[in-house]
Design a protein that fits this description.
Elements: H1 13-22, E1 33-36, E2 47-52, E3 59-63, E4 69-71, E5 85-87, E6 97-105, E7 114-123, E8 129-136
Antiparallel strand pairs: 1-6, 2-3, 2-5, 3-4, 6-7, 7-8
The structure holds zinc ion (2 copies).
The site of one zinc ion (ZN) has 7 residues, from loops.
């Protein structure tokens, strides 16, 4: 083993997503909590992801291992089975991702209500990370959305 430089610390796909989401951005609310998407049926952590074409805040993930769908946060409320959907694709063309959700919370009150949601996907082929959808929540109580990823 020659020990390739700079890769001593193994960073998982989720840790990369977490780092990405927690990085401050000038034009976005700060993210306080990050949760990884894990299939509730089989524990799978790889997904294809579909969004409604004309509706923000409607993201459905499909487990690549077992095919079970799950909705991110309150997406199910805005999902329309008849509507036009888009499958998320990386710039490299692949459509298989590790997924994580960043939650920006209201900082100035006692609740854990959610202000904004960011859905970040990391391509399993090329490791590129991007935010594929984000939306305002702005109602309470909404802290339970942190468990709906
Ligand atoms: Zn599954
Ligand atoms: Zn890619």
């Amino acid at each position: 083993m020659s020990g390739s430089a700079g890769t001593a610390a193994h960073t998982s796909a989720y840790e990369e997503l977490q780092e990405f989401l927690l990085r401050p951005e000038d034009d976005a609310y700060p993210v306080h909590e990050v949760r990884e998407c894990v299939c509730k049926a089989c524990g799978g952590r790889a997904f294809s992801v579909t969004v409604m074409a004309e509706e923000e805040g409607s993201v459905r993930r499909t487990c690549l291992a077992c095919g079970v769908h799950g909705f991110i946060a309150d997406s199910e409320d805005f999902w329309d089975d008849e509507g036009e959907v888009e499958v998320c694709g990386c710039t490299c063309g692949h459509e298989e991702f590790t997924a994580a959700v960043g939650f920006s919370l209201y900082e100035d009150d006692e609740t854990d209500d959610v202000r904004w949601i960011y859905v970040a996907l990391r391509c399993q082929a090329c490791a590129e990370i991007g935010v594929y959808d984000d939306w305002k929540v702005g109602y309470g109580p909404s802290g339970m959305l942190l468990d709906q990823v």
